[in-house]
Amino acid sequence: MSFCNVSNVYHLNEYSPDEWFLGKPLHDEESTIIHHYAFAENPSIFKYPDFSAAWALSIPLLDRLASKVRDEPLKSDFTIDLKHEVALYIWENGQGPRLTAVPELCTEPEHSPTAQHCATTLSSPAPLCGEPVKKEDIFVAVKTCKKFHTERVPVVKKTWEREAFLLEYYSDHTDPSIPTIDLGVPNTERGHCGKTFAILERYVSDAVPKTRWLLVVDDDTLISLPRLQMLLSCYDPSEPVCLGERYGYGLGQGGYSYITGGGGMVFSRAAVVRLLASDCKCYRDDAPDDMVLGMCLNALGLPVTHSSLFHQARPEDYSRDFLAHQVPISFHKHWNIDPVAVFNRWLKDKSRSTSPRGLNKSTKEEL
């Protein structure tokens, strides 16, 4: 959570009343999928704001952008990283202003000696909203398939499986050594809608213990379950909660938001019951499960809740400065990395007292 030092905000008066786009700049070390591989030849050349430090637009720029949005709605199909996409929209392929760095917009800890000049700071790791959710209250569903039983599943077992109290692996092949459960849905190379909806059905059946929360992950998701337990203390499982990293599809043309599956999708039992009671279903087994669920939630008027602590991609795909002030909950993909080393560096806590920043009710971001 960010705090603002009002006395230092007056530094903005130093900027003339022209078109200004101000913030704490982030940049990519390498071209990344979450930014559509933009600026592939020199990714670090393009700067975009760290929203955690706050950002500012001058009124002349804001007026022009408002007119532009009315005349020319956003054209991008997918909204993945809003801070990068906002900067691209403002820049307009060189026709608009680039981000100007403002040293007073900071992500320093609130009580740090180095934060005296800062207009914005971050709170120290926040207290929990309550007691961490018990691990017995979270049912974990891991989606896998036969070809990854010996490649990806062992990584889960070496890293975060031990923190789960209730966990099942769902596959297209029964393997007692793991063990896996065959839900009767053939494996598909792309989307896994059929498998995910079968998991939802199993979750509310008598086949598994009744829990308040369902976590659905891929077999190449790396996740900290203790940190998730802390985050979930901020949410009421009696409400229809759908939580994770929120993406958007066609938002400029009346589209919808969805929880991207790779970073982990968290559902309260109430949300699963509402989803299954509706007419929403997969139009094909290989349809993208996260996007179909997003369409269903949108049709039902249920909120999609974003947390920046979930990550659809690898740590390498995010700005170093962006991750520097996070205690992340998840990452995704094993491409060109040692996933066990990534887990140990980013997600394994030496002490259970570590609390992610901003785990209080004010940090919930709902559509």
TrEMBL record:
Keywords: Glycosyltransferase, Membrane, Signal-anchor, Transferase, Transmembrane, Transmembrane helix. GO terms for cellular component: endomembrane system; membrane. The keyword Membrane applies. Residues 132-337 form the Fringe-like glycosyltransferase domain. Its main location: membrane. It holds the Pfam family Fringe. It is a single-pass membrane protein; Single-pass type II membrane protein. InterPro entries: Fringe-like_glycosylTrfase. Belongs to the glycosyltransferase 31 family. This is Fringe-like glycosyltransferase domain-containing protein. It comes from Oncorhynchus tshawytscha.
